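Subject: design request, 168 residues
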């Protein structure tokens, strides 16, 4: 799929509105004229609110690549849940809890926040703070290759969403 062009806020808002309306149709499932009209109004309100809270930026979104992240996202969620459950029910849990600093390439903002959310699905890892060039992650096992796994997640994320990356 092609990317949404940077610098076209009208098109960005139109895509948001269509996605909100598609979500309405999936949730409502009745497709009666009254409900569709209400869905259009709700989608317009959601689009207006999203434009106020998160104005269109110059970042590009490649929808096809974003959809390709879904299986990875689901698999990482399954692994994370299984790993945490295995550790919780083990007679002698293998834990080396602690903090790991990850040198992130994304600037602060919506793109970086989304990356922190996605990366927190790694088994036993959750973002807990950070600075301009670093995100601090709390880990159940600092003996694992956490930084390498985070780098792989950031690369996968960057293919789908192309936020401005800082040089260096």
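Subject: RE: design request

Done. Sequence follows.
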């Amino acid at each position: 799929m092609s990317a949404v062009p940077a610098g076209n806020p009208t098109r960005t808002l139109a895509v948001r509105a269509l996605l909100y309306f598609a979500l309405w149709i999936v949730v409502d499932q009745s497709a009666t004229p009254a409900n569709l009209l209400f869905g259009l109004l709700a989608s317009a309100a959601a689009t207006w609110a999203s434009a106020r809270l998160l104005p269109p930026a110059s970042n590009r979104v490649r929808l096809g690549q974003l959809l390709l992240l879904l299986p990875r996202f689901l698999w990482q969620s399954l692994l994370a849940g299984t790993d945490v459950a295995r550790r919780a029910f083990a007679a002698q849990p293998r834990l080396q809890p602690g903090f790991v600093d990850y040198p992130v390439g994304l600037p602060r903002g919506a793109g970086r926040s989304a990356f922190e959310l996605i990366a927190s699905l790694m088994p036993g890892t959750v973002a807990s703070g950070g600075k301009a060039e670093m995100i601090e992650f709390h880990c159940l096992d600092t003996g694992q290759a956490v930084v390498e796994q985070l780098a792989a997640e950031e690369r996968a994320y960057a293919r789908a969403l192309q936020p401005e990356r800082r040089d260096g």
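The first strand starts at residue 60 and ends at 61.
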